[in-house]
Amino acid sequence: MFAYELHQVMQAELIRRADAERLLREARQARRSARLSARRSAENDPEGRVSTRSRFARAA
User: Fold this and answer.
1) Distance CA 35, CA 29 (A)
2) Is the CB of residue 18 less than 8 Å from the CB of residue 12?
């Protein structure tokens, strides 16, 4: 009986971990898509960045 209970606890823990990872993945995707849509809308903005180049030279 103890092995079955231990199995149930481990299964519940794995399900919790999978849910947490899924939620994290969805949050990352939402942030990424929000950033992308903001960048796209900024491209059409008449007032914005003048240049896409960096101000500083790259290090060797």
Assistant:
1) 10
2) no
